[in-house]
Amino acid sequence: MASLKRCLLQYEALGWTGIVPKACRETQLHIPEQYAAWLWGWPNRFLSRMERAGTRVILVKYVDGFSGGFDRPEDLKDLPKGYSGGIWTNRIDRIGPLLKNERP
């Protein structure tokens, strides 16, 4: 959690410039869904910047203050249109087939 916090605080300060801080490079970020919209360039520019920096982005859904997943089909409507990053799910059996049909 400390590395995520360090990355996001630095990105908040520098993201408008297009710079990806060192704390955000070559890592995996589990971004809480409710904070994602506050990130500079969310979703497309942010995802592109992180990909170029060697970082994988996973969007996590929080329910009642606890981390959870995009576990129900209706949860997918909360994803930005055309979202190409990863998502956290505890029900790949339900969600996987739905996403597979959306991707080329």
Automatic annotation (TrEMBL):
Top-level taxonomy: Bacteria, Bacillati, Bacillota, Bacilli, Bacillales
Organism: Planifilum fulgidum
Name assigned to this protein: Glycerophosphoryl diester phosphodiesterase
